[in-house]
Amino acid sequence: MMNLDATTMVLVLALGNLALCAVLTFFDHGPVRPPSWAAWALSKQVQAGAWTVLALGGLGVVPEALALPGGYALLFAGVAIEAGAAWEEAGHPGWPRPALVLCGLAILAFFVCYLIDEQGLRSVAASLLLGAFYLAAALALGARWREASLLQRFLALATAVLALVVAARGLSVLLLPGGWRWLSSELLRQLSGAALYLLMLANGFGVLLLARERAGRELARLEVVDPLTNVPNRRGFFNALAPWMALARRPGLPTALVVLDLDGFKRVNDGYGHPAGDAVLRHVVELCKRQLRDSDLVGRLVGVEFAILLPRTNLDEASLVAERIRAAIASSPVKSERAMIAMTASFGVTVIRPEDSTVTLFQRADDALQASKRAGRNRVSQAVPAPVET
């Protein structure tokens, strides 16, 4: 095993963090940069500055009396921001204030130990404080363990183990100043330096991989979710409908399908603009959700046509649900910047039959919808019932 002196290891960490700064700065993070990524990038910039100051102190370019306290103060700040970024990603945006307080206490504790410098107290303080901050980052990464991806779980475990290795050096100086058997103080110093280097790589490139993972999840979500109304799009609705189509072939309670189309929607976009039209669509979806059970599902098929899946609901019950939604839309105008926009909708209602395909099911629902439009719009029509076998 090649032994690296402390100055060389610090120089390696400085150059490594500088390289990660460049990678994180130019990384394609999308049109809007999440706060956690911005905090991670800032943490690497601060840590790069810290290790650079420490390296210059080790090389004699900067006086040690300035390099050591200044470099470690920057280092604690950088690692505190990194832990805060992990908590931001875990859904706790209020991290800056506690991170600032803990960072200030850590710097104060290190300065006291630096002034005393009894039995390597500054080395003890540095190792224990850095280990504590990295453990906080590990706890944040694993905070949502059940929902976390394998990558996030790995990063949480790896960060925790490496943080303990960093802290072990400080503990060994306190408890076993001369080392223990084969685990000498020099070996612990080497392991602590290697752990810091691995933490730099894991947390730096881990951020990039997590960003790509998040982008992949968002892309997969957008394949089945309408971004405007945040309900299933045509593909997502058909995916949810498939198992109910299969269940319709078995005896049991029926499943209903309601399709609705907003009446005269073109006048909204033409008269009030597309932002007002988008507001109307979101408003209609919210009105539908208020009239539905948790087991029901509303989806946007195309344009201003929506579909509602009503499990375990017969034709008459589904018509009552559709009527409630129709009345809610008609009595709830949408407030725009220019006017109150009144809307109505036409509905077609049917139930899934054992012999149905999605084509025949939606054709029957659409026929009922067209019957509502021909009858004057703003009404609910049932599909023609299935013929009774004799």
UniProtKB/TrEMBL annotation:
SMART domains found in the cross-reference section: GGDEF
EC number, UniProt record: 2.7.7.65
EC class (word): transferase
Domain of life: Bacteria
Catalytic activities: 2 GTP = 3',3'-c-di-GMP + 2 diphosphate
Protein name: diguanylate cyclase
UniProt cross-references to NCBIfam families, sorted A to Z: GGDEF
One Pfam match: GGDEF
Keyword Membrane belongs to the record: yes
PROSITE patterns with a match to the protein in the record: GGDEF
Native source organism of the sequence: Massilia consociata
Keyword annotations from UniProtKB, A to Z: Membrane, Transmembrane, Transmembrane helix
The keyword Membrane appears for this protein: yes
Transmembrane regions: 66-87, 99-117, 123-142, 154-174, 194-211
Segments forming domain GGDEF: 253-385
Listed PANTHER family: DIGUANYLATE CYCLASE DGCM-RELATED (PTHR45138:SF9), REGULATORY COMPONENTS OF SENSORY TRANSDUCTION SYSTEM (PTHR45138)
